[in-house]
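Methods: example folding runs. The two proteins below were folded one after another, and each record is reproduced exactly as written to the output file, sequence line first and structure-token line second.
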Amino acid sequence: MSRFWSPLIATLSPYVPGEQPKIANLVKLNTNENPYGPSPKALAAIGAAVDDGLRLYPDPDASALKQVLAKYHGVQPNQVFVGNGSDEVLAFIFQALFQHDAPILFPDVTYSFYPVYCGLYQIAYRTVPLRAGFALAVEDYQRLNGGIIFPNPNAPTGRAVARDEIERLLQANPDSVVVVDEAYVDFGAQSAMGLVECYPNLLVTQTLSKSRSLAGLRVGFAVGHADLIEALIRVKDSFNSYPLDRLAIVGAAAAYEDEPYFQHTRQAVIDSRTALVAQMDALGFETVPSAANFIFTRHPAHDAVIVAAGLRAQGVIVRHFNKPGIDQYLRITIGTVEQNHALIAALSAVLAVTAAPLA
């Protein structure tokens, strides 16, 4: 601890992102990146934007991208907010909408950035235990709160909440902002976007990092009532007026305009997930039902830490969370067909040499 730090800094427990190792020929299944590349139209748009215009600041409102997103999701442009990845959008949400007297609520097993934001902005929170099988029950959120947030599908479990259940949650909490974090929604869950016009307290966030294969571009957005969006703009313009550069704006817009490519790669991931779960079942793994581009799985007879280490030794990396209640689970990103085959081969070898059962 430096004597020059502000007092708050010493109390923070920063988010730990998934490892990005620089190892050749690695089967990288630990950070939920899309195994298929971006839309060729997106790449072409980015390439075309690499010109003398880069000497100028980008549009601070990213109007062209907002128009595309608004049209796609059936809302008005003033109902859309864009930011430097959905993590930045979420950070602005916590600061703009969750700083109230009552604690905010989110699941006890969920995206680990949520408590980090609470620490940074000194927001009181309460975690709500998931039910058996990591299911989220909306009736558990019918209590005093200063806001509610949860991913749908949840991370790291992959379980989804049906849209009618989300609507029931909104109806039970009319005086609280409810944020549905839909980073993985395109891989099998029902989006809450269609509820935005009916519920002024609903804010839906999405990202282009997963289903649009643009994790390296850093583009996220929120859709909700114009009053909620204005709050986010006020925070943005008090922090950084230009969160999206020119390349991100044109690339993201082009990706959303290439619907055939999106549908093709999205379905490829879904099909691979189905096949992978069946192969995992054959190896004795127990996998949580997933609507995401990853699975959350455990083997009842093998320690997760040992399995993860064994996979790494064979050039396959997955994500392990050393946290109570989930420390025997591995989160495995859905890869290409070839990557999934390599995973199964490596798992078979690991299980054969780590046959000692759990106590």
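Second run, written to the same file directly after the first:
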Amino acid sequence: MHLGTRIDALRAQLGGPRDGALLRYSLGGALLDEGEAAEAAAQLRAALDFDPRYSAAWKLLGKASLAGGEVEAAASAWRQGIAVAEAAGDVQAAREMRVFLKRLDAGDSG
């Protein structure tokens, strides 16, 4: 399925019975793939409104925020995501977000 078609199909489900964290996460990821960072971040925030313990959504929100030039928002998302991932025992997600933060901090200080 073409990405634009996929985005349209996902958008068509918003507000319906399948609307939820997974739908919003999927839409956010597809929008980010299309370079729509601000809209992707908005959908990922909506995913987190549905489920604030969704560590993958925190991770992708950080990426979308960074892609949109929102460095502090990216760092904040990853910090929150690390806390969520650690609480859930999601070691890999926490590790990945720590790496993203470390790279971000290295870029800011250098």
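Comment on the second run: Residues 3 and 33 are 8 Å apart (CA to CA).
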